[in-house]
Design goal:
Elements lengths: L3 E2 L6 E2 L2 E4 L13 H13 L4 E3 L8 H10 L7 E6 L6 H14 L7 E4 L13 H14 L5 E4 L3 H8 L6 E3 L13 H7 L3 E4 L32 H20 L4 H10 L4 E6 L3 H9 L7 H15 L13
Helix pairs in contact: 1-2, 1-9, 3-4, 7-10
C-alpha cells in the first residue's frame, strides 16, 4: 500500500488506517480481546500499518491491545492516539501522553491528537495556546512526531494553528456524512493538513448490511446515530441500491467502494474499524480500487441522496 505524507511532517501513513475504538470495548457489544488482537495484526499484514486509537477508548484498553498486537513490528507501524477533552491543561497533556506511551509500550507516538475541543462533554475550558504549548514541548522532546486535532471546526483549527504546526484533522467524513466539505476541507487543502476521516462507512451503514428492518441492541451506540433514524435511513437505503451496480462492476463490496471513493478525495485518508481479521483484509483491498473521474462524480451524486437532507450539525449522534 503506497504511503502518503502526513501534512508537512516526516511521518508517512497508509491511505486506509485501522480504527480501534471497538478494541476498547466500552460502548461496544460482543468484542473479544483475542479477536481485536488478531484483527489489528491482520490489518498490518494486509498493508494497513497506521493504527488509530485514543486514551478514552476503554480507558487505555484499546492502546494496550494495539501494543499486544504490534509491539514486535513497532518500527514498521505508525501509532496515532489522542488526548481527551478533560486532559487539556499543560500538565495533564504531558501526563496523558506518558500514559499512552506506557500503554502502547513505545517511546514515541507518530501522531498525537486532541480528541475533542476544550469544553466538549462539559469539560473545563482550557485556552488552546496552553494545550498547544504542551504538545509542542512533547514534539521537541521526541515523544510525539506530529500534532493533530479531531472534531475541530474550521475556526478552531485555524486558532490552534496559530500556536504550532497542525498536520492532521480527524473529522467524521463519509459518502453519507459530508459537512466538512463546506469550509473545512478547503482550509486543509490550503494549509496542507491531512484529513483522517473517521466513520468512513457511516458506522457500517455503507456496508449495506443493515436493511430497513434492522434492530440494534439498545446498548449499541448506533441507536443514537442520526443516519440510522427515520427518513435519513430510508434515503440511505435508496442510495445503497444505486451504488450496488458500481460495486459489482469493480467486483468489490459496497464498503470497499465507499472507502475507495473517500481516499480519492483531496488529502483524505480513511480510518476503518474492523472486528474480525477478514474485515480488516477487505478494508485494505479498497486501496487498490481505481475509480474513474466519471465514477467518482456519479458516486458523489448518489451520496447526496442522503446528505442533501441532513441538517448542518457536525455531530453524527443525537446523544442526550
Amino acid at each position: 500500500m503506497q504511503k502518503r505524507q502526513l501534512g508537512t511532517s516526516e511521518v508517512t501513513i497508509t491511505p486506509i488506517l485501522m480504527g480501534t475504538w471497538q478494541a476498547g470495548k466500552k460502548v461496544w457489544v460482543g468484542i473479544e480481546d483475542a479477536d481485536s488482537i488478531k484483527t489489528i495484526r491482520a490489518a498490518f499484514e494486509a498493508g494497513i500499518t497506521t493504527i488509530d486509537t485514543a486514551e478514552v477508548y476503554g480507558d487505555g484498553h484499546s492502546e494496550r491491545i494495539v501494543a499486544e498486537a504490534l509491539s514486535d513490528v513497532r518500527d514498521r507501524a505508525e501509532y496515532a492516539t489522542k488526548v481527551f477533552a478533560n486532559h487539556l491543561k499543560y500538565d495533564q497533556v504531558i501526563e496523558a501522553c506518558d500514559r499512552s506511551l506506557k500503554n502502547l509500550k513505545t517511546d514515541y507516538i507518530d501522531l498525537y491528537q486532541i480528541h475533542w475541543p476544550s469544553g466538549a462533554f462539559n469539560s473545563e475550558i482550557v485556552p488552546i495556546e496552553e494545550t498547544m504549548n504542551a504538545l509542542n514541548y512533547l514534539k521537541e522532546q521526541g515523544k510525539i512526531r506530529a500534532i493533530g486535532v479531531s472534531n475541530f471546526s474550521r475556526s478552531q483549527l485555524a486558532e490552534a494553528s496559530q500556536y504550532g504546526r497542525i498536520d492532521s484533522l480527524q473529522p467524521p467524513y463519509s459518502l453519507f456524512w459530508r459537512q466538512i466539505e463546506k469550509d473545512t476541507i478547503p482550509y486543509c487543502i490550503e494549509n496542507n493538513i491531512s484529513i483522517l476521516a473517521y466513520s468512513p462507512l457511516a458506522q457500517g451503514l455503507l456496508t449495506g448490511k443493515f436493511g430497513p428492518d434492522h434492530k440494534f441492541d439498545p446498548k449499541d451506540n448506533r441507536t443514537s446515530n442520526k443516519l440510522f433514524q427515520g427518513e435519513n435511513f430510508v434515503h440511505a437505503q435508496q442510495a445503497l441500491e444505486k451504488l450496488r451496480p458500481i460495486a459489482q462492476q469493480h467486483q468489490c463490496s459496497l464498503a470497499q467502494l465507499a472507502l475507495a471513493w473517500l481516499i480519492a478525495q483531496p488529502q483524505t485518508q480513511a480510518i476503518a474499524g474492523a472486528r474480525y481479521p477478514e474485515q480488516a483484509k477487505d478494508n485494505a483491498k479498497a486501496a487498490s480500487i481505481q475509480l474513474s473521474e466519471a465514477e467518482l462524480q456519479k458516486i458523489d451524486a448518489i451520496g447526496r441522496i442522503v446528505t442533501d437532507h441532513l441538517d448542518d450539525s457536525p455531530i453524527m449522534w443525537s446523544w442526550e
